[in-house]
Amino acid sequence: MPVSLGGVDTLRLSAEEASALLERGELAPGELFASYRAAIEERDPELHAFVTRVEEPVGEGVPIAFKDIISTRGIRTTAGSRMLENYVPVFDATVAARCRALGMPVLGKTNTDEFAMGSSTENSAYGPTRNPWDLTRVPGGSGGGSAAAVAAGLAPWALGSDTGGSVKLPSAFCGNVGLRPTYGTVSRYGIIAFASSLDQVGPVTRNVRDNALLYRIISGLDADDSTTVEVPAVELPTADELRGVRIGVPRQLNEVAGIEAGVRDAVRAAIELAGRLGAEIDSCELPLSVDYGLACYYLIAPAEASANLARYDGVRYGLRSGGADFEEMIMRTRRDGFGDEVKRRIMLGTYALSAGYYDAFYGSAQKVRTVIKREHDALFERFDVLVSPTCATTAFPLGAKAQDPLAMYLTDVLTIPSNMAGLPGLSMPCGLADGLPVGLQLVGRQFSENTLFRIAHALEQALGFDPVPERLR
Amino acid sequence: MFCRCENGFGAEPNTHTCPVCLALPGALPLPNRRAIEETIRLGLALGCEIAERAVFHRKNYFYPDLPKGYQISQYDEPLCRGGRLVVPTAEGNVEVGIVRTHLEEDAAKNVHVAASGRIHGATATLIDFNRAGTALLEIVSAPELHSADHAKRFLQLMRQTVVELGLSDAELEKGSMRFDINVSVRPVGSQELRTRTELKNMNSFNFAAKGIEREIARQIEIYEAGGRVEQETLHFDPGDENSPPLRSKEEAEDYRYFPEPDLVPVSPPRELVEALRQKPGGLPGERIERIAGLLSFSEAEVLVMGGLDRLWSAVVEAGADPKPAANVLANAFLAAGIDPASVDPSELARLVQARAEIPRAAFDEALAHLGEDGFSADPYLERRTVSDVGALDPVIDAIIAANPGQVAQFRSGKEGLIGFFVGQVMKKTEGTADPRVVNERLRERLRA
After folding, report:
1. Residues with Cβ within 8 Å of residue A223, at least 6 apart in sequence
2. CB contact, 8 Å: A141 with chain B?
3. Of A48, A121, A316, B172, which residue is most buried, by most CB within 10 angstroms?
4. Among candidates A294, A241, A278, which has minimal Cα distance to A462?
5. Chain B residue nearest residue A311, CA to CA
């Protein structure tokens, strides 16, 4: 463990190691927190991973950063929006409360696309976050802040939220391990809602074991969220081989249009490596899920968002723009408070739910969702896990898709199908393409997080990927 | 309905709130198990089918008193569907279909304020969120009520049913029961349902009946003048039933209903449903019917609606005659405001049976103490009425001697003055005299 004068090497220290150092008394909690504070001071100005930083540690555990969509009592929570610029929650989200109950001090709130709507973190009202591997590129979104913070050693681990891929995609772009858990395993209480039937909080970490550790902390039944369920005990993975594991390689995901050669090669190499570790590998088909997943997602998610964001009316909290009466006040408030992408999705969603369109849009999309789920279920009779790239490309340059919403939406085409089916998905780095990390996506059955951790851990050991961005080594 | 706040009626504004009912970002609704069970109980009492799977929906619209910008309600999969309430009337039973019974959450309360303190010219709106999120049970009846009187009886019976089931105090003044009444008219013999208007947020039975009558008359007048009734909503000022209603055109509002993703569907286990089922014959409507066989319909109605029929049955069982027992309960009892549960029926039965033999004052006094612990009728029954002429005559003579003026008037034909004399005698005897004997003796002596 490289412990330098004045603190620890935050780029290399895992959360598990940090926890052990604290436990053995080899590191003072204040010193650990201060090391991350120093890293933030040094590198956040160029990255802008944080929207709000916390100066003083509360608790003596391993520090953590939260995506700014997670309510934190007493710490400003903006959702990346002008609407909540001065909003300080009076309660902790359940996931935040569980971390804080273990004494984990909050380092700060990380940047996000406004209300988690975006794939590049460029839709934040507080400016974009940059990718620690290449400052001219995006970190992915919507949770680009958490991913960049973990990759650049500004936090040992962080929480994100994943609706269409907002944990998995930024983890892929920044070289982290990111888990989108099974829907219902992690409480959404206190998570600023985007699309309630899809939103799920997940850990962003530098390795697989840290990810399992953090998932163990945040998951489980919550009396405040009636959609949560009991979760099987989370096991810390130790496996270094994959004998008996059946891996499916869905053709439609692995040969998606526009896939970059470097991405394809890195993913292929990882799959071959899995075979050498003893896994059985076979190709398979997911025709409907990929063809219709994205389209249905962009009906369901905006529809739910249009209702979830109705509460921002200037009446009780958040921004209020003046007006002569309620109508004028609410119109001005929402005009001034929401950015373009949020307005676009509210309009899409409102339209999809409107009388005369409901059956054609929202209603059909929900039916297709069932079809997508069945298509996945059928594959899980033959396979333990489905693998593919997390994204067809590596991190793209800032501004490259900012003016083209459809191109931006397509970024999530590989992460959305399993999200629509409520399945767990994990993104892990499997190599570099032109100096940028490539994400490998592992999708499992419902509640099969332990299996995902096990497979990911064995691959991680064999791949030997160095998660520290080359320019920071 | 969806949070753990206390019901804050009458409390300081905004003191019974939480992240859920204020719709703070990230707060999630939690279904209230009791509200769901109570709804099922009412549904069963109304003979509804209890859904195997009920779904909450979001009803979307913007209003300052609607914190989330949507109301959690039930749409096409309500908890209870199809039932009926039998409303006994003097002319026979009226059967009213119940289309559905569902649960939703209440909105907050807007208070419009102006420097003058009046609604008119209000310059600001204050919002009290205490009520926001309170469980609201909506009962939708079929268009099967054909007069204001029947509608009123239906509402009263529904209230009594809800109160007896313990679902709500259903107090109209507190707003814990309100009705929206849809009114349309049609030619006699016709079966069509014409355009309706809606009387919104009514909170008094009489007011509702009056409103319906006024609306019926208005619609008939329009049709007879060759006009057309327009679909609209009429808002009444609950403080002033004579003020004309505010009209608002029914906007083609699109509520964009969709299933509430924050709540899982409710699937009440069948054993729970069975456990919530009432024994037959126990509902107020059924009891009115049964009792009306022994009394007049209106007596039966008064007893049941006043929550007195069970005591009445017990008193009759203890040996009282049905009619007098009903009279005593309906008149003296209701006025005295005694809690029927605190009364010993056998003691009351003794009083009822002896009411002609004891002084009126003793009877009234006994009623006043009826609700007390260990009440016994004995001391009151001992106070027998004085009807002995030998005892009464001296008193009567003294009154006649003391009032020569009135005596002269009586003798010149003002016979109504007899009441004055009886009153004087009763006063003198402290209410113990038998009024019938006093009356007879007085007339004899005055004519002499």
Report:
1. B30
2. no
3. A121
4. A241
5. B68
Question: Are A248 and A387 within 8 A, CB to CB?
Answer: yes
Please confirm, yes or no, whether A124 is among the known catalytic residues. Answer: no
- Of the candidates A380, A412, A442, which has an alpha carbon nearest to the alpha carbon of residue A256? A412
Half-sphere exposure (Cβ direction) of A158: Cα atoms closer than 13 Å = 40
User: From the candidates A14, A142, A187, A219, which is the catalytic residue?
Assistant: A142
Residues 75-134 of A with CB under 8 A from B: 77, 79, 84, 87, 89-91, 93
**Sign of dihedral through CA atoms A277, A279, A280, A286?**
negative
The nearest alpha carbon in chain B to A308 belongs to B68
Distance, CA of B89 to CA of B98 (rounded, Å)? 18
Collapsing DSSP states into helix, strand and coil, what is residue B396?
helix
B264: which chain A residues are within 8 Å (Cβ-Cβ)? 226-227
Catalytic residue among A166, A289, A306, A448: A166
| Nearest-angstrom CA–CA distance, B131 and B123 | 23
Residue A166 annotated to the active site: yes
pLDDT in tens, A387-444: 999 999 999 999 999 899 888 999 999 999 999 999 999 999 999 999 999 999 999 9
A350, closest residue in chain B (CA to CA):
B256
- The CA distance from A20 to B161, in Å, is 65
**Rounded CA gap, B320 and B299, in Å?**
16
For the complex shown, is ipTM > 0.90? yes
List the domain boundaries for chain A.
15-287+372-472
Q: Which amino acid does the sequence have at A436? A: L
Q: How far is A355 from chain B (nearest CA, A)?
A: 6
Q: Which of A139, A169, A47 is nearest to A419 (CA)?
A: A169
| Arithmetic mean of pLDDT, A5-9 | 70
3-class SS of residue A143: coil
Q: Which residues of A touch B23 (CB under 8 A)?
A: 311, 316
- The answer to whether B26 contacts A316, with C-beta atoms less than 8 Å apart, is no
Using the beta-carbon criterion (under 8 Å), do B30 and A307 form an inter-chain contact?
no
User: Which residues in chain B touch residue A188, judged by CB atoms under 8 angstroms apart?
Assistant: 26, 28, 262
Angle value at C-alpha A223, between A217 and A225, nearest 5 degrees: 85
> Hey, what are B112's tokens?
């419009």
Q: Which residues of B touch A189 (CB under 8 A)?
A: 26-28
Out of A77, A316, A362, name the one closest to residue B258 (CB): A362
- Other Cβ atoms within 10 Å of B177 Cβ, number: 19
Render the burial of A301-339: b for 16+ CB within 10 Å, e for the rest: bbbbbbbbbbbbbbbbbbbbeeeeebeebbebbbeebbb
For residue A255 the two structure tokens come to 């040969």
- CATH 1.10.10.410 spans which residues of chain B? 389-447
Instruction: Kindly state the tokens that stand for B371.
Output: 């609700």
Asked if A178 and A147 touch (Cβ cutoff 8 Å), the reply is: yes
Q: What is the 3-state secondary structure (H, E, C) of B291-315?
A: HCCCCCHHHHHHHHHCCCHHHHHHH
CATH number of B389-447: 1.10.10.410
What number does CATH give the domain A15-287+372-472? 3.90.1300.10
C-alpha distances in Å from residue B49, one per residue of B80, B94, B158: 6, 21, 18
Residue A67 designated active-site: yes
Q: Which residues of B touch A350 (CB under 8 A)?
A: 256
Q: Which amino acid, residue B74?
A: Q
Residue A328, chain B, CB below 8 Å: the answer is no
The Cα B341–Cα A410 span in angstroms is 71
Q: Helix, strand, or coil here: A301?
A: helix
Q: How confident is the model at residue B239 (pLDDT cuts 50, 70, 90)?
A: low
Average pLDDT over residues B195-212: 90
